[in-house]
Amino acid sequence: MSQNFSPKQIGQRLAELRKRRGFSQDELAKNVEISRSSIAKIELGNRGVDILELQKLSQILRFSLDHFMAKEFCIDQDKPTNEDKKSEKLKERISEPTLQVHKFKNILLYILERCAGKPNVGETVLSKLLYFSDFNYYELYEEHLTGAIYLKLPYGPVPQKLDIIITQLIDVGQLQRVKTVYHHSPQTRYLPLQKANLTELKASEKETLDRVIEQMSDWSALAISNYAHKDLLFTEKLPFQ
Q1: What is the CATH T-level fold of the domain 91-234, as seen in this structure?
Q2: How many CB atoms lie within 10 A of CB 62?
Q3: What is the DSSP letter of 202?
Q4: Which pLDDT value is given to residue 162?
Q5: What's the pLDDT tens digit per position in 167-200?
Q6: Which residues pair with 177 in a beta bridge?
Q7: How many CB atoms lie within 10 A of CB 46?
Q8: What angle (nearest 5°) sits at the alpha carbon of residue 59, between those of residues 138 and 222?
């Protein structure tokens, strides 16, 4: 653990992430396999976190350890940090993406329209379907589909602002979060409450989405995560943090 942060600061960050991801202390404790009182003590700064527990927390709450331990940590990741500004100067790529939020929301809703009924499609599979839609489209056309930036997490790439966008969709009644159990493990799923508006999509964009859904939406979270890890070893066509 970094000496730059007190247990209280680390606890506050974990509490913010837990609430943002929609977990109760009891739900998080069961996933990490410690007691609820331990989670409460960690969040209050009355108990430290060892590296194995922090790795588990990063997988469950979906955060990058590098970002979590950075001085400029921001729960919403909306405000540019000093590191963001430096990285922007270093990223001089052709077709530098800009997140198209409205388009991203409709693509997310469309994927869920097609896949939400499948028991394997929880958060992990959903995030990878978004990633491969973006990646495959760029491979084919050298254009960005959504403009999303992806975080390298322990179980594969995840769109940087996915949680913010999901929260916005839930707040306006277009999406519902559901906690379930799949193969004896807790699972968070999302149900679309409104049909996607695909009028902004090109035929080539919808065709790419349909192909990814057809090929990968039946994969398990482990299979699609492993495939994404293998994919990242060979290419970085999309921007990552």
Answers
A1: Arc Repressor Mutant, subunit A (1.10.10)
A2: 21
A3: -
A4: 93
A5: 999 999 999 999 999 988 899 999 999 999 999 8
A6: 190
A7: 13
A8: 65
